[in-house]
């Protein structure tokens, strides 16, 4: 008992010296009163995509990526909540409860040991019979108090093993929550890659995400059955376009329409025709085929 509680501290008490709990409290024990960086990034990307236009490939991609960032932010918050419940809170409860009690009782035991040492010293220095008798009485009392406090501390220390087992289970739950979080993040990004690849035709002709930047020749199926008037041409739509009013014609990527100059020529706009529909269309969204 003297070996355990002498000048060498038991290893359990060195836990507070390593400050492992500080790391977890700093990283996980924080109330998120404001949006996370992922939430802010996602919202900014969504707002930018809406400003550019959800019907454009770039605007649509910004919105999709922004939404994915927000899903990542939500997953991060769920992981933090789970980590708090499964690990941080039990650890904090132990450190602020049982651990404080153990440290308090151990401090009392150290004081009792100092008192006992002082009584032994007085007994060694006693010269008269009366002083020896008094010193022996004090020694017996001090020894009894020390033994009682040592038993209390011993019982508390014996409970450490069960506390360790409980925290080991909590630590396993924490690792499981973290693994779930990273798996969710990976799945979000895989889904996002598939969605972007599908919506922008990343593999189309090896031209990348924006095929309209690389003019291509029409396939035989795109050739007109009948020749068009000289002032009209066929054009392939490069990107989706939402009409802003009734004077404009909405467009769908990859469809072929007939275009002609406006009555009042405009370098940025032409008159588009699809079946019986007519309306202004932006030149930047078209690839003239003939």
TrEMBL record:
Domain BAR: 1-205
Renumbered residue ranges of the record's region Disordered: 201-228
InterPro entries listed in its UniProt record: AH/BAR_dom_sf, BAR_dom, Endophilin_SH3RF, SH3-like_dom_sf, SH3_domain
Domain SH3, residue spans: 230-290
Source superkingdom: Eukaryota
TM regions (residue ranges): none
Annotated PROSITE patterns: BAR, SH3
GO biological process, one term: membrane organization
Protein name: Endophilin-B1
Native source species: Araneus ventricosus
């Amino acid at each position: 008992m003297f070996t355990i509680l002498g000048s060498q501290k038991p290893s359990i008490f060195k836990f507070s010296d390593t400050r492992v709990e500080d790391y977890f409290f700093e990283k996980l024990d924080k109330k998120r009163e404001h949006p996370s960086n992922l939430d802010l990034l996602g919202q900014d990307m969504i707002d930018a995509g809406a400003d550019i236009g959800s019907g454009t490939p770039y605007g649509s991609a910004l919105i999709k990526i922004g939404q994915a960032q927000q899903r990542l932010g939500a997953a991060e918050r769920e992981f933090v909540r789970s980590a708090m419940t499964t690990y941080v809170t039990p650890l904090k409860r132990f450190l602020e409860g049982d651990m404080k009690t153990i440290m308090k009782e151990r401090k009392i035991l150290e004081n009792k040991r100092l008192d006992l040492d002082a009584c032994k010293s007085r007994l060694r220095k006693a010269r008269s019979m009366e002083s020896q008798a008094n010193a022996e009485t004090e020694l017996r009392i001090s020894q009894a108090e020390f033994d009682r406090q040592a038993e209390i501390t011993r019982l508390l220390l014996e409970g450490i093993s069960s506390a360790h087992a409980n925290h080991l289970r909590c630590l396993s739950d924490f690792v499981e929550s973290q693994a779930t979080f990273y798996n969710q993040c990976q799945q979000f990004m895989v889904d996002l890659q598939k969605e972007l690849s599908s919506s922008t035709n990343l593999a189309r002709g090896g031209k990348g995400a924006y095929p309209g930047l690389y003019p291509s020749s029409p396939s035989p199926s795109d050739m007109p059955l009948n020749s068009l008037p000289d002032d009209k041409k066929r054009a392939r739509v490069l990107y989706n376009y939402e009409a802003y009013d009734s004077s404009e014609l909405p467009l769908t990527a990859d469809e072929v329409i007939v275009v002609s100059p406006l009555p009042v020529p405009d370098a940025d706009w032409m008159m588009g025709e699809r079946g019986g529909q007519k309306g202004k269309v932006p030149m930047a969204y078209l690839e003239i085929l003939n």
